[in-house]
Each structure stands twice: as structure tokens, then as C-alpha cells.
């Protein structure tokens, strides 16, 4: 699936490392930042008249026009129409993001919203990540994505083996990261509830405290009862199956917000279609982080359907190691300062909540 998208949708591979921002003199930099900030706020081309009245741009309109023309020649701005003001290019947004003086902060109401959310965030990890994606979408008014952690390093907290009748039982593993793995086990013989309970107790003694990776590789010591040992062996086979199926799962919140982010229906359709391709989005988020970036703009994503989009990402950690990734996907004309603040805050609280179990 990813290869097909790569052939059809990939653009020229972006640089593997984040490059330092190009140097502009103070006046050009101030004008460019003012244009980007105003365009993000209004979605209207910005003219020299507005800039002449802006704080931090204290020169004549004629000088501003000359500097805007120079910025256009250098690829930072574009003029949609002859009589219109300018709008930022991808290069202009990149300069703006790379020269943000502070990462931004969430407002008091948003901070309280995050605090209340994680104070009540309990239950299975899948539900928590689903709700986290919706929280992040509400904070930013953009589509949010959360990549679930791999469970290999999570330890087994409890084991249950529940008979379902006949020759089937349900194996339930509760992991330290909040995940609950459920697998059916075909019973080798028509065993009674007592033998199932004995197998469950033996499994718990063998698996609790082990990582899922270690549990999948281990063989339990014999109990002395052949039927119980056969049942324990079948359950361990289900544990190995759970690990083999463990992969990056994507949770998407606020996908409908894409309709408000772009005027072109075709752009919305293409982005929504891409969101349905889980492997592509997960690979994109990993790739952005691996390049040492927190923001990818337009062609920097390497995906042609996202040419008019920006992605803001951050990892969340467990025990000091990257467990998963969260991010937002929106138009290049997004409030980057707010987006960075929201992603950073939620990723930190999510990692802390998962660590606390």
C-alpha cells in the first residue's frame, strides 16, 4: 500500500536534516514575519499599507514595497494578483517557523481543559488514545493523529483465562502501559473450569512482570498435569500471536475539520483519502521526527496530496524512550505557535499518564 502511494503521491525526497534558516536582515525578517502572522490570521493577501501601521515595521510604505518585492524575488512571498498584496510561500512559512522566538503557550482555559482531561483519563489505552486525538483536535481546530505505542517493552500486570464454553477460552493480558490484549484460545480437550483456573494461575505466575516480548519467547515450566500443560502451551501460543500482530495503530480525531481548512473540495478529498491509509501517515510522522523536525511544511512531507498542508508532531515517551507519536495535520496557514504548544503539552501529559498506568 505504501509503495503504491509512494509511486503515485511522493514528490522529490526532502532533505534528511532540518537546515538552519536562511539569514535575512532585520528589516526583511520583520516584514516577512508580519506578513506570515497576518496571513495566518486573516487568509487575505497582505499589503504595504497594513505593514506600515504594524508594530516592528517602522519604515515608509515605499521602502516596505521594495522589501516585499525583494522577498518575492528570493522566494519567500508570492503575489496572487498584480494589484494584491503578498502571501507566504512554503519557504516563507519555513523561515517563520524556524525563527519563532518562543514555542508558544496554551491559554489558561486550554491548560485547564488538558488538566481535566488527563485527570479523568483511565481505562484501556485504545480508548485513551482515541479521546486524546479528539482533545488535540479541539485545542487546535485541526485534524489530530495519535500513533499508539508498541507493547514489546510493556510488562504483563495480570493474566486471566476465561472459559467461554465448549472448547474455547478467552486469554486477557493487562499490560503496564494500559493496553489490554484479548485472544481466544482453542482448548486442546474439553476441560473443566477447575483446569482452566489452574492453567490461568500457572500462566500468571510465569508471565506477570515479564515484558510482552519476553513472554512471547518463554516456555512455562511443566505443572505435572499433561492436560493443564497443553492448555498453558496453547495460551502461550496466543501470547506470541498477540505480539506478532502488534503494530503501529493510528487514531484520528477531527477529520471533518479538514472541510473547514481548505476551499478546494478536491484538496479535502485527497487529504481525507490519505488519512485512511494508516501506514502512510504513521511512516510520515516517524520520518519527520527522524529528520529532527517538529514541523513539516508542504513538500517537506514528501507526499504530493499534502502539498498545501503542514504537519506538527511530537513524541511521547515511556521510561525515557519514545513510545509513540502525536501530531496535527492542517493547512500551511496554521497558527504554528499554538500548534507547537498544544502538541508539546498533550504529548508530555500523555506520556506521564501512560507511565503512571
Structure description:
With 357 residues, this protein is an alpha+beta fold. The chain folds into 3 domains: 22-98, Winged helix-like DNA-binding domain superfamily/Winged helix DNA-binding domain (Arc Repressor Mutant, subunit A, Orthogonal Bundle); 108-150 and 248-356, 2-Layer Sandwich (Beta-Lactamase); 156-244, Enolase-like, domain 1 (2-Layer Sandwich), CATH 3.30.390.10. It contains 14 helices and 10 strands. It has helices at 2-9, 26-42, 48-52, 61-73, 90-98, 108-119, 125-140, 193-207, 212-217, 226-244, 258-261, 265-275, 278-290, 336-356; strands at residues 77-78, 87-88, 143-147, 156-165, 168-175, 180-186, 250-253, 295-297, 309-318, 321-331. The longest helix has 21 residues, at 336-356. The radius of gyration is 26 Å and the shape is elongated. 38% of the residues are buried. The model is unreliable at 1-19 (pLDDT under 50).
Amino acid at each position: 500500500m505504501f509503495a503504491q502511494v509512494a509511486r503515485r503521491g511522493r514528490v522529490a525526497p526532502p532533505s534528511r536534516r532540518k537546515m538552519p534558516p536562511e539569514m535575512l536582515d532585520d528589516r526583511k525578517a520583520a516584514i516577512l514575519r508580519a506578513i506570515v502572522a497576518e496571513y495566518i490570521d486573516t487568509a487575505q493577501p497582505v499589503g504595504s499599507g497594513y505593514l506600515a501601521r504594524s508594530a516592528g515595521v517602522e519604515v515608509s510604505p515605499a521602502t516596505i514595497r521594495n522589501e516585499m518585492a525583494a522577498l518575492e524575488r528570493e522566494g519567500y512571498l508570492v503575489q496572487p494578483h498584480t494589484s494584491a498584496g503578498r502571501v507566504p510561500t512554503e519557504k516563507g512559512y519555513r523561515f517563520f517557523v524556524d525563527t519563532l522566538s518562543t514555542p508558544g503557550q496554551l491559554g489558561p482555559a486550554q491548560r485547564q481543559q488538558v488538566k481535566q482531561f488527563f485527570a479523568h483519563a483511565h481505562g484501556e489505552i485504545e480508548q485513551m488514545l482515541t479521546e486524546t486525538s479528539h482533545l488535540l483536535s479541539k485545542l487546535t481546530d485541526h485534524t489530530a493523529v495519535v500513533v499508539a505505542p508498541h507493547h514489546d517493552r510493556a510488562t504483563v500486570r495480570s493474566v486471566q483465562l476465561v472459559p467461554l464454553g465448549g472448547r474455547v477460552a478467552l486469554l486477557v493480558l493487562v499490560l503496564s502501559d494500559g493496553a489490554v490484549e484479548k485472544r481466544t484460545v482453542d482448548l486442546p480437550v474439553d476441560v473443566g473450569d477447575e483446569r482452566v483456573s489452574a492453567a490461568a494461575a500457572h500462566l500468571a505466575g510465569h508471565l506477570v512482570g515479564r515484558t510482552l516480548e519476553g513472554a512471547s519467547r518463554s516456555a512455562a515450566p511443566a505443572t505435572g498435569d499433561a492436560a493443564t500443560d497443553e492448555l498453558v502451551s496453547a495460551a502461550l501460543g496466543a501470547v506470541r500471536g498477540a505480539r506478532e500482530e502488534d503494530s503501529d495503530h493510528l487514531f484520528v480525531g477531527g477529520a471533518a475539520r479538514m472541510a473547514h481548512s481548505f476551499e478546494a473540495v478536491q484538496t479535502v478529498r485527497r487529504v481525507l483519502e490519505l488519512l485512511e491509509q494508516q501506514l502512510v501517515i504513521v511512516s510520515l510522522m516517524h520520518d519527520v521526527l527522524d529528520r529532527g523536525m517538529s514541523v513539516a511544511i508542504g513538500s517537506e512531507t514528501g507526499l504530493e496530496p499534502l502539498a498545501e498542508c503542514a504537519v506538527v508532531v511530537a513524541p511521547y515517551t515511556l521510561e525515557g524512550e519514545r513510545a509513540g507519536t502525536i501530531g496535527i495535520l492542517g493547512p500551511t496557514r496554521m497558527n504554528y505557535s499554538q500548534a507547537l504548544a498544544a502538541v508539546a503539552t498533550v504529548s508530555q501529559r500523555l506520556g506521564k499518564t501512560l507511565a503512571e498506568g
